[in-house]
Structure formats: structure tokens, C-alpha cells
Write a structure and sequence with these properties.
Blueprint (H helix, E strand, L loop, with lengths): L1 H15 L6 E6 L10 E8 L14 E7 L2 E4 L3 E3 L4 E6 L8 E7 L3 E5 L2 E4 L2 H6 L4 E15 L16 E5 L11 E8 L2 E2 L2 E7 L12 E5 L3 E5 L4 E15 L3 E14 L1
Amino acid sequence: MVRRFIFVALIITLFALPAFSHELTIKAKDNNMKQGEPFPVTVQSAHKFIVPEEVEVLERVKAGIIEDGKLVESKLTANDPELCIDFTVTPKDLSGSVILVAIKDGEVWSITNQGGKTGSRNELETQGLKVLRSTKNDKYAKAFYNTSANDANYSQVLGHPLEIIPVTNPANAKVGEYFDVKILLNGQPYTGPVWATYDGFVTEYENTYAYYTEAENGEAHVKITAPGWWGIRAYQGDLPGVDGEYDAFTLRAFALFEVK
């Protein structure tokens, strides 16, 4: 009976884990962005929106500013007291919106007969463990600053495997109206779940969002219900794995913008 209970618990964990992994987000320390001056930013990992809970492994994260359609990486510093990663960017051009990006090359997480373990199927089986399932989780986050009504920088496609691209100019986002986005999965229109929330909507509970919809053929529409910083999230699980390394691959994308 005890063995059966443990097996059931592992199966529940197995299917719940991908849905409840930490989300990768970006948040600047202030909104006072000036051309040619350092602008402090944080990479956060959490179950609650813009409430940092853990410091990601530096070696697996890169972050910085988009210039000429490419990521210019910044030096990252772990900030253990504030549970985040610090970095700065120095914008050269403030004639349009500035896109900040963070990317995590995810670890392989395995469910074994001894619980959850970091490591590939081959690595853990070599240690004598029985592996039920191994999953690799990659994460992509964007944040839009210095938005303006006449700008088109916000609509750049960066080529992330899972990417949220605003159709509505973030500078024109208004309470009571829809914010439209395009979502691409490996360059093709994504169909699947989309969540959205805003800073302060819920601080007590994890994985709680203000809005849910589903993208159809790469298009999703989020009703803006409050001013402040909003995040839109997309998730794709159960993509093909790599034999011997991991059984499945998941992708997460987050896009942040301010509604004034």
C-alpha cells in the first residue's frame, strides 16, 4: 500500500511539475531610462508575478538589450539578498521602444524513484536511480521600456523558439481595451493557452493570473483590466526530447509592458 502511494505521488508530481515551474521575468529597478546612461535591471524567477523567489544559476542565463535586432549581453551578478540577478544596460537610442531580454537554458529535471533530481536520464540511471521522466525547461522573457505612440520597435521578431510579439503598441495599451499579441512556436503560429496578470493582482497565492485565453493560429487577445505592469505568458510542453538525455522539452515565454 505504501509503495502504491509513493508511485501515485510521483505520477502526480510528474504531471504537475512542468505547469508549476518558476517563471522567468525581467523588471527594471526604476523607469528612469536615459540615453547613454546605465539602466539597472533584474532577472527574476518566481511563481508569483514580479515577486522574486530564487536566484537562477548564472551560467544558464543570459540577458541584455536588443540592438539592431540582436541581443547585446550584459554581465550578470547574483543578488542573493534580493533573490534575483542584477545587470545593467546602456541604451544608445531612445527614439523608440527598448526591448530587454532574458533567456534561460534550462536544466534537465528528472522524476526518479528517489524524488526530483537535476540531471539527465543517462546521468541518473548511471547512479542507479530509476527515472520515470526527464524534462528540459527553456525560458524566454521580454520587457518593453521607453515605449512611444509612433514607434514600431516593439513588434520586432527575435526568433526565440517560443516568442510573444505585441501587435498592439504597448504605449497605446489602455484599461478596458484588448491588448493583441502574436505568438510563434519555432517560427510558426502557436495555438494554446495564454495567461496574463498585472503587478499586485495577487500577492498571496502562487500561479494565479488575472486573465486566461487561448491563442488561435498565433493570435491572442488580452483584456486589460487595470493600470500598471502586465505580463503575458505562453507555455508549450511535451515537445520531443533527446534520446538518453531527456524525454520531453518545454518552452516558456513571458512578455512585460506597462499600462499607464
